[in-house]
Every structure is written in C-alpha cells, then in structure tokens.
C-alpha cells in the first residue's frame, strides 16, 4: 500500500497535537479481480490532499488510515493498474467512517455495498436522486448527439434550457427532502452544498444550516460552511459591498469606493472561462447604452500569473473598455473569496452609495435592470 500526503499549509506542532484523530479500516471484496488491477483511495483532510493505493488480489483490497471526522472520499479501480485515469477506470464516492468498514460487490465497484451508518444514509440520498440522475444522463446524451449547429440554435436552446432547469429543480427537491430528514449527518451538509449550487442564496441555505445539530455545525466542515455563510450574508442584496483594492493591468491600485456616486457592476470573469467570454458581448452592449447615464463596470479577473497575457489579450479582443483589476491568483483571488465566488461568470450591481442592489444579472436581465435605473 502506497500512501502520499500533500500538505497545502504548514501546521504548528501544537496544532497537530490538538487534533484528535480516529482510525478507519476498509476491507473490500469485489468479484475475482486480479493483477494488474489496482485500487486507489483519495480524500481531503483539512489542508491536505491524501491518496492511497493498493493491489487487488482475488477481488480483495484493503486500506487503513486516520481521520479527524467522517469525510467524503473517492474509491477508484483501474483494471489495468495504470493510475487514476484511463478507459478501464471505475469510481465510487464513499464516506470514511471511524472503525471497520466493508465493501462488498458481486462484479462491479459501482454497484458494491458500503457498510456504515453514514454510507447507508448516502445510499438513501443516491436512491432519491436516481430519477433525476437518469433524466440528466439521457438529456446530456440527446444534447451531445445533436449537430453543433442545432445546439447553437436559439429556439432549440430555449427548449433545452427549460428541460434542464426542470430536471435541476426536481433534483433540488430531492436534496431538500433529505436535508430536512437528516440533521446530524455530514451527508446532509454535502447535500446542502449541492442544493445551494454555485450561487447559493443566504436566505435560502442559512435556515437549513441552522436546523442542523450542534455536533454537525461544530464539525470542521460545519465551521467552514458557517464562514461561507457569513460571507454570503455580507454580500447579500441590501448589504453594503465590502471594500477592496486590486491592481489594474498596469499595476496601479484601484479601490472599489472610488466608484461611489455611480451605479457600478463588479463583474467576476476570466480569459479562460468560456461562458464569461460568451457573456462579454452582452456586458459590452449594456455598457455602451448606459455608461453616459452614470453606469460603470469594474472587471475582476480570476486569471493567474500564467494566463496574464491571455487576460490582456481577452480585454482587447472582447472590447472591454472599462477598468480591469486582478491579483493574478486564479481561484485564490482575495476579492472572489470575499464575495464568495464559487463559479464564474458572476456579478454584483451596486448603487451610488455602494449598496448591493442585485446579483448575477445576465444578458437581458442586466439590460432590463439598467433600463429601470436609467429610464429612456
């Protein structure tokens, strides 16, 4: 068994001593698989990424380790033993629990049973989600089978968007039902993250989190989510936009407060983000139409040092004539963290006093909102 730990932060010795860990062990049996097949286990624990591997002999494999609390992990089989990528790979999401765990499968990892209360609850969630999972699989198969020109057709996309959104709403209903009936389980916390999506709304997710047990809320994962909620609350519609300063393309510092007196759109994007680049023409159109009336934009890029040249080229190519800033840290962008940006494109619209009056206005929605603020 080969174990590797990649530390993403340096911990003080005192911190290490203060962390209480419990042992786990996994014994598995899936069919009669043999060499060169390998099993791989990967998970994150705090600031560390942990990966482990072992040979599969007569379908049997085993792992052991220690965890601070139950945590989601990925178990992977490669039937040709060639690492974690390739055509002969099967993946299964499991939860590592303290104590002894068993994994039993007749002939496939994907259908194998995993022992443990948390894994039992996770299986209940998977069963509840299966109808929408099957619908989404069929939807994507139909979409991918379409000719490219049909995929781009406006009328076709309108129909597809409605179907996709209907599936997602049904899926959210399943998540919500599970969350409400399981308030003391890390699976529920992970389900809440999926329920909230990439642009969670504080007023929607906060009450659900508050309904969780104190044990769950006080777990490391619970505390991390609580911190995220604080960020959401601080950047919700009606709140004063948190101040920040970032350098522009020439290295000059730009303060958000310098835009006071104007309606300003703080636009989060990146040169490598396809949906962002597709949305840029709509933003350019709104800027041209309303800039002279008192509307401005501050672009915040999630590019990094390696893509700085692409960022500058994208600004020119997409004709983004407003101010652009970035700390060139990619997803570690300090302002993105401050505003709880988990996906892009996203934006925040501020009034002249600096108060947030709208979020994530796209295409016609942005122009419609600005038309209300600046009647013709």
Automatic annotation (TrEMBL):
Residue stretches making up the Thioredoxin domain: 235-376
Keywords: Cytochrome c-type biogenesis, Disulfide bond, Redox-active center, Signal
MF term (GO), any: oxidoreductase activity
Gene Ontology biological-process entries: cytochrome complex assembly
Domain of life from the UniProt record: Bacteria
Stretches that traverse the bilayer: none
InterPro entries: AhpC/TSA, DUF4369, Thioredoxin_CS, Thioredoxin_domain, Thioredoxin_ResA/DsbE_sf
Residues annotated as signal peptide: 1-18
PANTHER family: THIOL:DISULFIDE INTERCHANGE PROTEIN DSBE (PTHR42852:SF6)
Annotated protein name in UniProt: AhpC/TSA family protein
Species, as recorded: Pinibacter aurantiacus
